[in-house]
Design brief:
By secondary structure, this protein is α/β, with parallel strands linked by helices. It has six helices and ten strands; from the N terminus they run E-E-E-H-E-H-E-H-E-E-E-H-E-H-E-H. The protein starts with a strand and ends in a 31-residue tail after the last helix.
């Protein structure tokens, strides 16, 4: 029996889920603009309690590595690494964008012919994190931080001339307006934020017992807002 604990704190949501022997055993999901640090550990405790498992029962811990909020990514990775170390199990990192794409309902039955998917996330700094996937869910461009008005060119460079495009992520309205103006047939979806339940299922498909994945590291596409003070923080005389 394989047990996978999955965590996501990469965007304006916080979630934890336990995947056990091919099915979702327990899940917690909350929309949060801030306060991930206060919510994550109680969520993990509730998920493990609801599932009737202990951390020592785990076989794998999975987490999103980005793109996303700088502080959220650091929190999720630190928690995942600590839990994996305590349970003496591997820790797997998967991107926020591929987790969003995996949540599309039609992906369960298989991709639609000639359909591409663009994951678009609001950076809260006037631009987007974007990644383009082909009809087989393989990334063709990105992830990258780009200006919103460059999205159409970004897709064209990844897949060619305008066609059918499905959007996921929390910047769909912004992305749809730009793409439609450029001639794309755009379908917006309800897949707005990554969900640890989807991440757990994706991890189960990617990982096999005995595998040792590389140590997950954060996927930062731009530097943090905070910068080190000049002169070591000393006041100038």
């Amino acid at each position: 029996m394989v047990r996978i604990l999955a965590l996501d704190t990469s965007t304006a949501a916080c979630s934890a889920a336990l995947w056990r022997d091919g099915a979702l055993a327990a899940k917690c999901f909350e929309i949060l603009d801030r306060g991930h640090a206060e919510h994550l550990m109680p969520m993990i405790e509730k998920v493990m309690t609801d599932a009737g498992d202990a951390p020592s029962d785990l076989d794998l811990v999975a987490t999103t590595v980005g793109p996303g909020a700088f502080t959220g990514l650091r929190l999720g990775l630190a928690a995942a690494r600590a839990l994996a170390m305590a349970a003496n199990v591997p820790c797997l990192g998967l991107t926020t964008t591929e987790t969003l794409v995996a949540a599309l309902p039609q992906r369960i039955a298989g991709p639609s012919p000639e359909e591409i998917v663009a994951a678009v996330l609001d950076t809260k700094r006037g631009d987007l994190y974007a990644e383009v996937f082909d009809s087989d869910d393989e990334p063709t461009r990105g992830p990258a931080a780009i200006a919103t008005d460059r999205l159409a060119g970004f897709l064209r460079d990844g897949v060619g001339e305008p066609g059918n495009c499905t959007l996921v992520g929390d910047a769909q309205a912004l992305g749809a307006a730009v793409l439609r103006e450029a001639g794309w047939a755009v379908r917006e979806t309800e897949v707005v934020r990554p969900d640890a339940a989807v991440l757990a299922q994706l991890a189960a498909a990617r990982w096999r017992p005995g595998d040792t994945p590389p140590r997950p590291v954060p996927l930062y596409l731009r530097p943090p807002d905070a910068e080190l003070p000049r002169n070591g923080g000393r006041l100038r005389g």
